[in-house]
Amino acid sequence: MQLCKIRTPAGDICVGLVRNGAVSLLDLERTAGIRGIADILAAPNPKRLVAELVDARLTALAIDTKTFLPPVDGQEIWAAGVTYKRSKVARESESAGAATFYDKVYTAERPELFLKATAERVVGPHQPVRVRKDSRWSVPEPELALFISQDLRIVGYSIGNDMSARDIEGENPLYLPQAKIYNQSCALGPVVTLPAAMPPPDQIGIELKIERESQVVFQGATKLTEMARSLESLVEWLGRENSFPNGAILLTGTGIVPPDDFTLQSRDRITIEITGIGRLVNTVA
C-alpha cells in the first residue's frame, strides 16, 4: 500500500491511495484526529483506516507525478551520515584533516545524526532542488527515507535526496549545517510505502542517474545491505533524549557518491529509484 499527497486539478491539497495506476482520494474528515499522512501511518492499523477513508464518491485520478507534493505534514527531517563505506571514503577525501573523525564515526556505536530540513525547505517530485550559490562542489545524495511515528516505530518508507555542498563541509566539518540545510536542499517522494508492502531488505536496491542536456553524466547503484548500520538502530539513537510529537522523517545515508571532479549544474536532471517505492525526479534550479 502506498500513500501520497497531491494537488488536484481543482487546486485542493489531498491525501491519496496509489493503486492500479491511479490515485483514490481519502476523506480525512471521516475520522477525528486524522489530519494527514503522518496520522494515518501512526494509526494502529493504517491499512484498515485507509480503506475506511477512501472516498468512493470520487473518481480515481490518473497518476500524474507532476501534481505530487512532498509527503510531509510538518515533521522534522533528520539525516544519518557515513552509514555506507562509500560515503566514509568520500568524506575522508573531502577533508584530510577530518579523515580520522569520519573513520571513527563509521565504526563507532553512536551514529552521526543531524537535522536536515524543516517541512518548508522540502520539495516534492519534479520540483526544483537547489545548490548553494557559494558552493563550487555540490552533489545529490540518494537515500532511503524512514517515516517514524511519535513512539519511534518505522511506519513508512520513501525516497529522499539529501543535497550536499561537499566543498563547504570539507573546508571544516563544523560547517555541516551550512553544507546541508538551506532552501530546497531536500526532496522527498513521490509516495510513502507501508512496511508490509516493502520487499525484504536484501532485495532493496537504490539507483541514481544524473542527466545533463539529455546525456547521462553519472549513474550509480547500491543495495540496502551495504549499509553498516541497521535501520532500527538509527531510529533508536535518534529517539534518545528526543521527542517528536509530529513524528519524524529520517534519511538513512548514501552509498552512491559521484567522483570528486563532478559537481551539479543548473538544469541537471536527478533521478533516484528505490525498490518497492518508485522513482523521484528533480531538476536543479
Question: How would you describe the overall organization of this protein?
Answer:
With 285 residues, the protein is α+β, with helices and mostly antiparallel strands. It is 18% helix and 34% strand. The chain has helices spanning 37-42, 46-53, 85-94, 99-107, 166-171, 176-180, 231-238, and strands at residues 2-7, 13-19, 22-25, 61-62, 68-69, 76-81, 112-117, 122-123, 138-139, 142-148, 154-162, 164-165, 186-193, 205-212, 215-223, 248-251, 269-274, 278-283. The strands form three sheets. Strands 1, 2, 3, 4, 5, 6, 7, 8, 10, 11, 13 and 16 form a twelve-stranded mixed beta sheet that branches. Strands 15-14-17-18 form a four-stranded antiparallel beta sheet, with no helix packed on it. Helix 3 runs antiparallel to helix 4 (99-107). The radius of gyration is 18 Å and the shape is globular. The two termini are 32 Å apart.
Keywords:
about 280 residues; alpha+beta; 12-stranded mixed beta sheet; 4-stranded antiparallel beta sheet; globular
Short structural summary:
The chain has 285 residues and is α+β, with helices and mostly antiparallel strands. It has helices at residues 37-42, 46-53, 85-94, 99-107, 166-171, 176-180, 231-238; strands spanning 2-7, 13-19, 22-25, 61-62, 68-69, 76-81, 112-117, 122-123, 138-139, 142-148, 154-162, 164-165, 186-193, 205-212, 215-223, 248-251, 269-274, 278-283. It has 7 helices and 18 strands.
